[in-house]
Amino acid sequence: MGEVGSKLIRTNADRTDWGNVEEKEVKVVTVKTIGFSGNVTLTEWKVKDPLYIQDERGRAVGVAADGYKWLQLFPDYANYTVTSVYDENGQPVLRIVSICKGQGVTADRIPWYDDLYLQMMILPGAQPYMIHQELLEEAVQRGELDVNDYELAWRTARHVMDECLKGSFDLLLVADMHLCNLIEN
Question: Domains, the chain, ranges and CATH?
Answer without folding.
Answer: 2-179 (2.40.380)
